[in-house]
Amino acid sequence: MPSNNSVEIEPFAANHFVKSFEKKHKQHWTTTFLSIIDGLKRIEFLLQTNIAETICIAGEIKIIKTQFRIDGTKESAMSSGNRCIVAWHTDKQKVAVLLVYCKTDIVARNETAAWKNLVRKNYVQYYHLI
To answer: Which CATH number does the domain 6-129 belong to among 3.40.710.10, 3.30.2310.20, 3.20.20.70, 3.30.200.20?
Structure first.
């Protein structure tokens, strides 16, 4: 039986795109964010769905991209364009939230390359993974 992981929001994630979600989705953001955290606590189950995928694995660390919907909207997680990039430390049962963003927050032709660059630039400890 999979156990609950601890979830930590990295300062870069909290200070950047999360703030824009808070402003844009005022009343629905708290329940949305709690839902994201709840899903990440049981990331093993999340990975069995079509809204999460493992990007890379290096030893006991997995970089995972998930999708989520804003509470109170009719959009699905897949069509919303909302993403969450996390590092799952399987040995420590810890999930570190690296980025929470909307596709429109990334102003580049290649979304994947852009978020990978953000991770490389702001998280030295994960640079070698991406």
So the answer is: 3.30.2310.20
